[in-house]
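This section describes the prediction task in plain terms. A model, or a person checking by hand, is given the sequence of a single protein chain and must write out its three-dimensional structure as a string of tokens. No templates, partner chains or ligands are provided. The sample shown here is typical of the held-out split.
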Amino acid sequence: MSDATRKKEFLDGIKAELPIALGVIPFGMIYGVLARAAGIPPALAQAMSAIVFAGSAQFIGVQLIGAATPGAILLLTTFIVNLRHMLYSASLTPHLRHLPSRWRWLLAYLLTDEAYAVTILHYQNKIEPTENRHFFFLGAGLNLWVSWQASTAVGIFLGAQVPANWGLDFTLALTFIGIVIPALKDQAHVGAAFSAGVTAVLTAALPYKLGLMLAAVIGIAVGMSIENRRARRKT
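The expected answer:
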């Protein structure tokens, strides 16, 4: 494939991610504010965004740190929250298995909910195979990475100047709604999303964000149950 094809895939990835990245900016700012409120030094708060690079885990992590949660619970909670990335990776493997290790390590680092959402839709909708489609993933991932690092820095250093009545925290819900809705293509997806959402609401009062872990487990179980039942009907 030509350099023009690689460039086109890369730019298409950037453009596809752009609407979601704009919604993530307030999310990153809020993380920066919460990290400072939890007593995390600016350098460490920014390093968490660069090294962990997982918004949900970072949000939960800084809240647990601020509540002086035992380290074992902190590690277990963030680990379980990020287990969904294993499912993302498994679904992307057929499209990326031809890549050398250096590419797969890089793309694994850039894998997020937002980058996965636009990338898997692109791969599923693209009929003709292309050995350069990983440049789309790279463009989407780098777009989000830059947006996340920049918005985190703004939140850390300027977040205290953002008026509280702006209600930026609501953008988090809007961002994930925008990610989830296009992926709800069958009963299994809808059942998983609905059951997880209901569980998260009903268990919101549980300590240490255990409700989120329970919601993830129930959502996966419901989705797999519906999928297995549908498969048995076909046989």
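For orientation: The mean pLDDT is 83.
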